[in-house]
Amino acid sequence: MRDRVWIFIGLAVFVAAFTAPFWHVHAKTSARQPDLVLPANQKECVAPASTMRDAHMQMLLNWREDVVRRGDRRYVAFDGKVYEKSLTHTCLGCHSKAAFCDRCHEYSGVSGPYCWNCHSDPQATVTRSRP
Amino acid sequence: MKITRKEFLRLTGLSLLAGGAMQVVRAIGQGGTAARAAASQPVRLGMVIDLSKCREKDGCNECIHACNTTHNIPQIANRAHEVKWIWTEPFGTVFPSAQTGYAEQSYTKVQVPLMCNHCAEPPCTRVCPTRATWKRDDGIVMMDWHRCIGCRYCIAACPYGSRSFNWQDPRPAIASINPDFPTRTKGIVEKCNFCEERLARGMKPACVEACPQGVFTFGNLADPESEPRDLLRSRFALQREPELGTGPSVYYLM
User: Fold this and answer.
1) Where on the tree of life does the source sit, at the highest rank (chain A) (predicted)?
2) Nearest CA of chain B to the CA of A42: how many Å?
3) Considering the domain boundaries, does residue A57 fall inside one?
4) Could you list the residue range(s) of the whole structural domain that residue A93 is in?
């Protein structure tokens, strides 16, 4: 029973060493959400924010098929408002690609979408075409 | 419950009658929709190009310029890699069988504006393995660049050379990108789309709008009262290689 102190010290050292990576990462980074810039001129999106967060990718794919393959450009939103099915005009008409799309995609490690290989960000192209 | 022979036969007969009646009702319903479809006007979009007007302004390429800026078409010096939606070629190359040999002055010098013919029977759409290109109900031979895998079967099938392949990244070769229209990427086929995106907004194709001579007349060839049909009724017109059976929707007035 005289070793009790040493046993507890040893246990403490073991627990500290075992959980060290977690503490290390926690100290270096934070779980803070990305600093997204929301549109100043609009309050409502084409669908509630929770739906957009979960399903914007499906919606973009559906819009793409509708516009290109069916020639259907009219989107009637949940509140009856009518929008044009357009990435450039509707989505980027309010949102900023750099301060909204890219920030969240970088944060969540989603590098996948190749939208921008062809589609252009109106804000970026305006600054680019200026000498 | 026991069923008698008489009841069984009666039930069978009634079921057969009901089944037959269903078929009749369905046939009548389908006949109705077919009649309705025939009643709605068919659309076949087409273009009439008046070469006599085009001749008046030698060296003008406003139509090509308008198309290039509208659709972010790269300007590549290497002819093997060039991308073109609307371009020109000498009359003799475009209509080799329409030459008399003595028409030097009036025809041979003329550069003829060319574009996708948006054929009635497009050979390009038949060979596409991914259905990235197809003929719409209004006659436009459309492309879905999201789906193009760059196999170039359509380029081989098109007898008019209307399709171009992006051998290199087109973006560096575009002077100023129009954000309203996508660019393409390396490995994608592209061609004239009759300004489908402008038609959807109620505008005319860019080349039609840009031409200072009013060379291009765009409209519904299926409508006998339309502008292009008016021209085709009164003037002699040629199509490019109609003997191939593709049924081009682009007509040339001499």
Assistant:
1) Bacteria
2) 21
3) yes
4) 49-112
Domain that residue B30 falls in:
1-40
Residue type, A65: E
Residues B120 and B184 in one domain: yes
User: What is the domain count for chain B?
Assistant: 2
Q: Report chain B residues touching chain A, CB-CB < 8 A.
A: 136, 142, 144-146, 176-180, 182-185, 196, 200
A99 found inside a domain: yes
pLDDT over 70 percentage in chain A: 91
- Interface test mutation site (partner A, options B71, B135, B144, max chain A beta carbons within 10 A): B144
Chain A residues close to B141, C-beta within 8 Å:
none
CB contacts under 8 A, A 40-69 vs B, are 64, 68-69
Task: Tell me: do B29 and B60 sit in the same domain.
Answer: no
* Rg of chain A on CA atoms, in Å: 24
Chains A & B: contacts with CB separation below 8 Å = 33
Tell me how far apart the alpha carbons of residues B171 and B189 are, in angstroms, rounded to a whole number: 15
ipTM metric = 0.77
pLDDT tens column, B36-69: 555 578 999 999 999 989 988 888 999 999 999 9
If asked whether residues B31 and B145 sit together in one domain, one would say no
Cβ atoms of B251 and B232 within 8 Å: the answer is: yes
